[in-house]
Amino acid sequence: MRINSCEKGIRFSAIIQPRSSKNEVTGIYNNALKIRLTSPPVDGAANKACARFLSKWLEVSSSEINIVRGQSSKNKIIEVTGLSDKQFLEILKTKNLLK
Fold it and tell me: What share of the chain is helix, strand, coil (3-state, %, to 5)?
C-alpha cells in the first residue's frame, strides 16, 4: 500500500463501496484501502460516513480526516492530519491488514 507523507500528516488511496451491509475495512486492493460503508453515495453522505468511520477506526478526531480527491468517485485520496506513515502502518499491522 502506498502512503505519502505530507506537511500535515499522511495521504493514502481508498476505494469506497457504498450501500454495504456494514461499515468495515476489508483489506488492501490495488494499493488502496478498501472500505465498505452502509451509507448511499447521495449528497455527500458516503463521504461524511467515510470520515466518521475512519476517525473511529484510526482513533483520531473526525476533523483530522479530509478527502482531498475523489469526492464524487469511489476512488479517493484521504489525508489524515497528525498521523505519521509509521503510525498508520502499525495500525494496519495490528488490524491484520499487513503481513
Answer: 25, 35, 35
